[in-house]
Structures are given as C-alpha cells and as structure tokens.
Amino acid sequence: MKEKENDVKLKFKQVSQRDTPNTKLISNCVKAFIVGGLICDVGQMFLNFYTRIGLDKQNAGTLVSISMIFLGALLTGIGIYDKIGDFAGAGSVVPITGFANSIVSPAMEFKKEGFVFGVGAKMFIIAGPVLVYGIGSSVIVGIIYYLVTL
Questions:
Q1: Model confidence at 4: pLDDT above 80
Q2: At CA 65, angle to CA 86 and CA 30, rounded to 5?
Q3: 8 Å CB contact between 102 and 126
C-alpha cells in the first residue's frame, strides 16, 4: 500500500514538473522594475511641476497622490492599465496607480448590476481588505508605540 502511494506521488511530481510552464523570472523582474520605475518617474515629474508652480512640499505631495490615482483610474477606464499590468506584472501593482486600478476594475465589471449593488458594493472587493488590514495594523502599531513611549 505504501509503495503504491509513493509511486503515485512520484508520478504526480514528474507530470507536474513536465507540464508546468517555465517562468521567465529575470525577464519578469526587469519588466516590473522598468515599468514600476517609469510610474515613479511620472509621479516625480508631477512633484517637480507642483513645486515649480509654487506649492510647498506637503501640498505638492498630496496633489501627486491625487494625480496618480486619477491617472491610474483613467487608464483603467479606457483599457490601457490592464495591458500595462499584463506586460509589467507586479511593477504596475505596487505603485499607487495599482491601488486605483484595484478599485476601478471591479466597479466597471459590476456596473451592469446598478450603482448600489454593483459599483458601490463591489468597488472595494480587492482594495477593501488591503485598506482594512493596513489601517488596522497601523492602529495597533500606533498603540504599541504610544505604550512603549510612556
């Protein structure tokens, strides 16, 4: 019985190794690095522009976040951000534009179900858990920091 079980495991391992597609790890990392870097360059260009027109660093940073979220949402809405994501993988997900994409994509997908039960209910289906855990963990860290510094 044990021998038959080991044969099945060995055969499964051989089949899965044979049929698993080879990943292009280096190529994927380079694409992610380049596209993520380009997205960050666009953000830096916005920051340079906003500070050049006379805004202080804090207000310029706020406007950069707003601009990048808008740009990510716009590119998602017209179907370009998905193509960028297919090419760059994680390079398009990590920056703030990926956050905008994760909100706009489900909203567009469920638009036909109406604004309340479609767009409103499904908008945060992907970004919601990230927000909940991000905010929750920051509150916990803040409480710990407060208690340690008493």
A1: no
A2: 35
A3: yes
Which three-class secondary structure state does DSSP give residue 32?
helix
The dihedrals phi and psi of 90, each to the nearest 5 degrees, come to: -65, -20
**Nearest CA to 89 among 39, 40, 130, 35?**
35
Per domain, the residue ranges of the chain are 25-123
With vertex at residue 72, the alpha carbon angle to CA 49 and CA 77, rounded to the nearest 5 degrees, is: 130
Q: What is the mean pLDDT of residues 82-107?
A: 81
Encode pLDDT of 86-98 as tens digits: 898 888 877 788 8
State the Cα–Cα distance between residues 105 and 78, nearest whole angstrom.
11
Q: How far apart are CA 94 and CA 124, in angstroms?
A: 17
The three-point CA angle 142-148-150 to 5° equals 105
Residues 8-54: tens digit of each pLDDT: 778 888 877 777 777 788 999 999 999 999 999 999 999 999 999 99
How many angstroms separate the CA atoms of 137 and 118, rounded?
29
